[in-house]
Amino acid sequence: MVIDRIRSETMLEAINLGCIRGDRRLFKNLNFALEPGDLIEVRGPNGSGKTSLLRIVCGLAAPAEGEIRWNEKNIRSLGEEYSADISYLAHQNGVKDELSAIENLRISGGLAGNTLSKQEARAVVARVGLSDYQNLPARLLSAGQRRRVALARLLSSRARLWILDEVLTSLDDAAVELSRDFISGHLSAGGIAIIATHQGLGLPAGSTRRLDLHP
Amino acid sequence: MNTSSTLSRFSWLVWRDLILAWRRRADVLATLFFFVIVVSLFPLGIGPEPQLLRAIAPGIVWVAALLASMLSLGRIFGNDYQDGTLEQILLTPQPVYLLVLGKVLAHWLVSEIPLVIVAPLLGVQFGLSQNTLGTVTVSLLLGTPVLSLIGSIGAALTLGLRAANVLIALLVLPLCIPALIFGAGAVEASVDGTEPQPWLLLLAATLIVSLVFAPWATSAALKISVE
Fold first, then answer.
1. Which one of A109, A186, B139, B191 is CB 3.0 to 4.6 Å from B186, fit for a cystine?
2. β-pairing, A24-34 with A12-21?
């Protein structure tokens, strides 16, 4: 029974993952398992396959070998059910230049089936420190501010699994501190995160694990 | 996954694309003016020969609509692909088939409906009768969704390529030939004073077939393009 309980708590599993880009093998036999509250930091030099790994984990790319399991089911067979559980912050922000921060949030919320009222959206925008810019089209925001809008999207999602690619890019010190808080908050609420990073997040060791990819 | 939440996501997607089109309305207007100018060039070039103009009107209106659509197809997925929102949309919890349908519907509303609305006005330059102008509208109403649907396949396949718009046209135009033949045929029948209905029914059949198969092909193409 105890074994059953532990097994059912394992939420995200990578089994013998392999990835090939073009004719280059990026990694093979990659295994990891994440339970609620776990964070994995994916480290490695440029071109070592961090982004490829994250894209495989979120299901945008298919692995050359192996599989990703979410609650013991292959994510390929879960489809939309899995999409509802994840939030992916890519290298690109996924923020529409023509829309304001509030509109970006409400629309991505609506698309994810998580409708936000204007007040709720405003509250989230305030948390990432963009209250003064909430109605400006995103094209007028700086790179760091746009990254903050992307962070706000992450915050407003109800996803249990956060998949973040270089989340700290172009953020200033205050925003870096803020994202650390958000990530710890997410983990202590029973969330899971897998984060690709160069510089390290500097989160307390606790349940943080490190996965090094070598080219 | 219950129906109401699927419907709500679908309408968010369409709403989003409508807002974006409104914020970039210059793009939409460019397509429309292209259509207006191409169609108007023929009466100006050929001169006042009512007989000839009436004979060539069906083909010209339809070919111009086809070409104008090519201009806008790249935008169905192109902008979203570039800023990363396409990935985000593909990761939302709903079938890709529905996402494609939503994008296509928005494209049709934004880029094709204006053509349908101005086409009868342009037809006046060719001396078409009121009856025929009605047929022009109906044939375009049935035919332009086919252009959006088939066009979405080309748009998805050429994502991220240079000179995507030219490639889209090369891929999509041949596939649109049935719609062109049936649509122009309907208008021609009406000009000749015969019954356009058989042509319109064929056009409707083309619409149904592309409604079933195009989103499916586009979904597959999208998955390949973002990988």
1. B139
2. antiparallel
B residues 10-39 closer than 8 Å to A (CB): 12-13, 15-16, 19-20, 23-24
- pLDDT tens, residue by residue, A183-214: 999 998 889 999 998 877 777 766 688 888 87
Third-level CATH fold of A1-85+160-215? Rossmann fold (3.40.50)
pLDDT at A4: 45
Q: CA nearest A92: which of A27, A41, A167, A161?
A: A167
From chain A, the residues in CB contact with B87 under 8 A are: 60, 88, 90, 92, 94
Beta bridge partners of A100: A137
Chain B residues in contact with A98 (beta carbon < 8 A): 19-20, 23-24
Q: Roughly what angle, to the nearest 10 degrees, separates helices B113-123 and B25-46?
A: 20
Asked if the Cβ–Cβ distance from B93 to A83 is below 8 Å, we say yes
Q: Which residues contact residue A52 at a Cβ distance below 8 angstroms, ignoring those fewer than 6 apart? A: A19, A21, A26, A61
Question: Is the Cα dihedral A55, A61, A63, A69 positive or negative?
Answer: positive
ipTM, 2 dp: 0.88
| Residue range(s) defining the domain that contains residue B41 | 3-226
Give the gap in angstroms from C-alpha B129 to the nearest C-alpha of chain A. 43
CB contact under 8 A, B93 and A58: no
- Look at residue A2 in the predicted model and tell me its pLDDT: 42
Of B15, B90, B92, the CB nearest to A60: B90
Give burial (CB, 10 Å; 0-12/13-18/19+) of A32: middle
Alpha-carbon gap, residue A18 to A28, rounded angstroms: 4
Any B CB within 8 A of A92 CB: yes
Residues 6+ apart with CB under 8 A from A180: A201, A202, A203
Number of domains in chain B: 1
Substitution target in A68, A96, A166 with the highest count of B β-carbons within 10 Å is A96
Touching B: A residues 19-78, CB under 8 Å: 55, 58-62
The pair phi, psi for residue A74, each rounded to 5°, is -60, 130
pTM, 2 dp: 0.91
